[in-house]
Amino acid sequence: VGRSIYLDHNATAPLLPEAWAAMQAARETAWANPSSVHGPGRQARAVVEAARADVAALLGAEREEIVFTSGGTEADHLGIRGLAWTEAARRGLAPGSGARPRVVASRIEHPAVTGAVRALEDEGFEVAWIRADDAGRVAPAGVEALLDGRTVLVTLALANHELGTEQDLAAVAEAAHARGALVHTDAVQAVGRVSVDVRALGADAVALSAHKLGGPKGTGALWLRPGLAARPLIAGGHQEHERRAGTENVLGIAGFGAACRVVARGLAEWAAHLAKLQDRLEAGLLAVPGSRRNGPERGRAPGTSNVAFGGAPGQLVMIGLDLEGICVSTGAACTSGSIEPSSVLLALGQTPEAAREAVRFSLGPSSTLEDVDEVLRVVPEVVRRVRAAV
Ligand SMILES: Cc1ncc(COP(=O)(O)O)c(C=O)c1O
Description:
By secondary structure, this protein is of the alpha/beta class. Helix content is 43%, strand content 14%.
């Protein structure tokens, strides 16, 4: 079996050695329950709190503003459902009180977000869906048009998981705040790729996931603006200052903190490296006859190239590349096992046939020029074979 080339970093990043080392160290020093008062418990608490400081530092935040969760999905749910319920209740708009609070969400969100928004809809919230243009950009004016006096929350991902498209969140937040609505952003695909400073961002809640930036799976965090409360999703113990019950995933959190330290040190250099590789990769992919880019040319988080090869179903291209040891995907990992076309591309107005042709190449810090050149050597032949077979 030859070496595989991994260009699916938007699905997950390989665990960083520093994260694994921190997890192994935590096994020795932080095996106890961090809520226990005895010495080993206090040692485990120290590890959790040091990691919280590392996560906070990466975001320009304070330690106590970070709530650890079981990953990006839970962070999105806490930031969306938790905040929407608390805010609706605070404003006397909670469903059941005769009011119908509104939540505004984009049509191109990750299933973690749409799942949370649909749960609110089931609970009696009204949802207004924002359109994106054909490159996946959401116009702040379009959001503004959907805000009304009952709007409690706007949710919009900072960088799209399939296209990499970045949004003008500051402008969206300004408009939302002017109408009294809070703003949640799924920054899962942005943190680790672009610099995210929560104070400058303007959002009230920011969700992130450890495994997209080199930490372990099953750990994530929500940043919450000081003074804001989000109704907990899970009732139980007093962990996370009553914001998320359940004994903390100490080893996972230790790995998450270590990954954040690595990202904080390496981000500027990685971004330049990724941008260079991406330019070369994309120029090569777009030189394949009949190919086209999904997403904008500029204004993307570095690393994501979504390209369709006309007449070649993306699933078959992905499988053909896999046989050559090259790992890519056709969209969100959660949906890529299905033959349904990408909901993101459909929301941009693409036909199901066109959307089914998408292939997502996502680079990471450990990707190399040799990887890119090998992919560019193999792709034209795989696309030719697929086209000939369908
Ligand atoms: C944009 C986005 N949001 C949320 C998630 C979910 O994160 P997690 O896998 O940690 O639950 C992912 C990754 O799958 C993602 O890409």
